[in-house]
Amino acid sequence: MTHTRIKICGITSVADARTAVDCGADAIGLVFYASSSRAVTAAQAADIARSVPPFVSVVALFVDEPADSVRRILEQVPVDMVQFHGRETAEFCAQFHRPWIKALRVQPGMDIAACCAGLHGARGVLLDSWQPGLPGGTGKTFDWTLANRELSLPVVLAGGLDESNVGRAMALVRPDAVDVSGGVERSPGRKDPGKITRFIAAVRAADVLLGGATDDN
Length: 217
Prior knowledge:
Blueprint: E1 5-8, H1 14-23, E2 27-32, H2 42-50, E3 57-62, H3 67-76, E4 81-84, H4 90-93, E5 100-106, H5 112-117, E6 124-129, E7 155-157, H6 166-173, E8 177-180, E9 185-187, E10 190-191, H7 193-216
Parallel strand pairs: 1-2, 1-8, 2-3, 3-4, 4-5, 5-6, 6-7, 7-8
Antiparallel strand pairs: 9-10
């Protein structure tokens, strides 16, 4: 059966990390971007990461962070994967000896396939919505038809997802994973257990439908 991976991003506390895991998340995201309302320090992140059980991935998110700063954080926090949300090149992303994914802020007319082709060594591409001045966490969706094509990298779909629209997005894009932050919050940086539960249930329901559609073809 189809199993779309689920990442709950913008985790800021041990309690929220445990809630996400207990609800069935495959990964949690820790934001190391000082301008974000969901930013955590290395000390906070280390406590959160240590609370996560085996086989749930801890993902560190950076936005144009200097390489030395990235290294210092990775030395302090047990991170499984790194997610880059800025203007980082593939060469920059590859230097930290961790699996990595790169976010693309999707705009009309963007050649996503060409962008993916340039991300040598990436484990996947995260497709997020574009908004001036915001590298992510916009709470806005983008035109999913732009991503409804064969790409050379596994796709993580993000940008304005919530329990009401994630099924439609999955049906159109068929992503390998979905990434949600604001769509499962009661306020920025504070997760809502009910919203997390309903979001994950919506993803699993879509998995069942899409798996059946695949089997019938």
